[in-house]
């Protein structure tokens, strides 16, 4: 992506089973790996609430990685373009730092985690930046502004440059 010069124009590589992702000045899509599930979301406020990287142990486990890159959307602005009936959910509160329930919504076909909802954040969904079809948004409008649970970050990862840091939840 670094070779793609103009970050103000959409850059939507063919990298999954879907080829119909899009983005405009105010809205964009997020699609699972197989293409069965697609969401549309706002790329600015008030619908786009915040962007962040989470290093908590749950995010590490659920992503099979060392962190999760996320953005929070007000549910009034989140649209299920297709595949809402193809989502499976799993929720629990035993390992959630706040003690509140967190429910994860996955594509039943390919297993992509599309978003999480938590009782601690009513009316909001936490989407994964990696599901966003326009890769330029990863570096521009969706660039993480905060990094949370830095106390759980692996030592070999320096963290998000320029992001506000929090040892736990902000």
From TrEMBL:
Statement: the UniProt record of this protein carries the keyword Chloroplast: no
Keyword match Calcium: no
Domain of life of the source: Eukaryota
Family: Belongs to the Gfa family.
Keywords: Lyase, Metal-binding, Zinc
Residues annotated as domain CENP-V/GFA: 28-146
Protein name, per record: CENP-V/GFA domain-containing protein
Residue span of region Disordered: 1-22
């Amino acid at each position: 992506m670094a070779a793609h010069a103009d970050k103000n124009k959409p850059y939507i590589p063919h990298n999954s089973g879907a080829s119909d992702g899009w983005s405009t000045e105010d809205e964009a899509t997020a699609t699972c790996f197989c293409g069965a599930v697609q969401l549309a979301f706002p790329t600015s406020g008030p619908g786009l609430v915040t962007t962040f990287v989470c290093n908590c142990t749950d995010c590490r486990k659920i992503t099979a990685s060392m962190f999760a890159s996320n953005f929070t959307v007000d549910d009034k602005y989140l649209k299920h373009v297709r595949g809402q009936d193809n989502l499976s959910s799993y929720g629990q509160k035993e390992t959630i730092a706040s003690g509140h329930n967190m429910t994860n919504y996955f594509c039943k076909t390919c297993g992509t985690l599309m978003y999480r909802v938590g009782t601690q954040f009513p009316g909001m969904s936490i989407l994964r930046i990696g599901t966003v079809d326009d890769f330029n948004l990863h570096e521009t409008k969706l660039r993480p502004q905060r990094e949370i649970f830095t106390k759980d970050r692996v030592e070999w990862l320096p963290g998000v440059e320029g992001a506000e840091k929090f040892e736990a939840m902000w």
